[in-house]
Amino acid sequence: MTQKWEDTFLIRNKLGLHARAATVLAQLSAQFNAQITLYQGEKSAPGDSVLALLLLESSQGKTVRVECTGPDAQGALLAIGNLIEEKFHEAE
Amino acid sequence: MKLSELISEDCSKAAVLFNSKKRILQYISELAQQKIPDSNQHDILEALLNREKLGSTGIGKGIAIPHGRLSGLSKVVAIILVNQQAIPFDAYDDRDVDVFVALIVPDGENKQHLETLASIADKLTNKVFCKRIRQAENDSELYQVLVEFDN
C-alpha cells in the first residue's frame, strides 16, 4: 500500500538551503524507498536532486513542506524533518 | 540574474584539461586572482579547499560548483570551466565531473548567495544547455552559449 506522509518545517540555519545543506538532504533522500518532494511557495523539488533543491532558494525563516510517498515514507519524513530542524548539522 | 553577466567571457574556459581535483582548483584560484586585484591566489585556493573538506561540491550529473568565501570582496566572481574529460570529484552520485561553475563570494550576504546558486542551478538543470556547453570548442563559443540561454 502506498503511504503518504507530509509536514511543514521551518528553515532555521543561517545559510538556508545552500549547496552543502542541499547535498546532505539529497544524500539522505536517496537512502529511502520513497518519493520525496519539497515545496516552497509555488516551487517544488525532488528531495534527491541538489540542483532542483537549490532552485527553491529556501533561506532562513522560510517554511518548506515535505511530502513523502512510498514504503519508507514515514521514516523519510522523520529523517528529513530532523535534518532541517537540526539546522543540517550546522553550527548556526 | 543572468549567467552571462555573472560570468564574464574571460572567466569562461572551454575544453581545458586537468586531471585532478587539486589541479582544477588551482587553476580556478589562478583565474579568480586575476579578477580580484587585492587578493592572493593562496587565500583563494585555501577557501576552495576548505569548502571541499566540508563535503564535495560535486552536485551530481557531472557538475561541481566549487566555491569559497573571501572577506572584503565587493562582488561575486564566477568562473565556468569545461574539462575535456570527467575527473573524480567525490560527487554525491559517484559520477566523475567535467563541468565546473566556481564561485568566490563575499563573506555574509547569505540570501544573495542562495540567489546566485539558484541562477546557476536554473541553467544547469537544462539538459540542452549542459550538452551545448560540453560541446563548445573554444572559450568564446562557451560564452556565447551562456548569452544565448540568457535570452
UniProtKB/TrEMBL annotation, chain A:
Main location: cytoplasm
Localization: Cytoplasm
Any one Gene Ontology BP term: phosphoenolpyruvate-dependent sugar phosphotransferase system
PANTHER family hit by this protein: PHOSPHOCARRIER PROTEIN HPR (PTHR33705), PHOSPHOCARRIER PROTEIN NPR (PTHR33705:SF2)
One Gene Ontology CC term in the entry: cytoplasm
Keyword Cytoplasm recorded: yes
Pfam families attached to this UniProt entry: PTS-HPr (PF00381)
Cytoplasm recorded as keyword: yes
Record family assignment: Belongs to the HPr family.
Ranges annotated as spanning the membrane: none
Keyword annotations from UniProtKB, A to Z: Cytoplasm, Phosphotransferase system
Protein name, UniProt field: Phosphate ABC transporter permease
InterPro entries: HPr, HPr-like, HPr-like_sf, PTS_HPr_His_P_site
Domain HPr: 4-91
SUPFAM superfamilies, A to Z: HPr-like
UniProtKB/TrEMBL annotation, chain B:
Domain PTS EIIA type-2: from-to ranges: 5-149
InterPro entries listed in its UniProt record: PTrfase/Anion_transptr, PTS_EIIA_type-2_dom, PTS_Nitro_regul, PTS_SugarTrans_NitroReg
SUPFAM superfamilies xref list: Phoshotransferase/anion transport protein
Xref: PROSITE patterns: PTS_EIIA_TYPE_2, PTS_EIIA_TYPE_2_HIS
One GO biological process term: phosphoenolpyruvate-dependent sugar phosphotransferase system
GO MF assignments: protein kinase activator activity; protein-N(PI)-phosphohistidine-sugar phosphotransferase activity
Any one Pfam family match given in the protein's UniProt record, by short name: PTS_EIIA_2
NCBIfam families: nitro_reg_IIA
Name this polypeptide is given: PTS IIA-like nitrogen-regulatory protein PtsN
Protein's organism: Pseudoalteromonas luteoviolacea
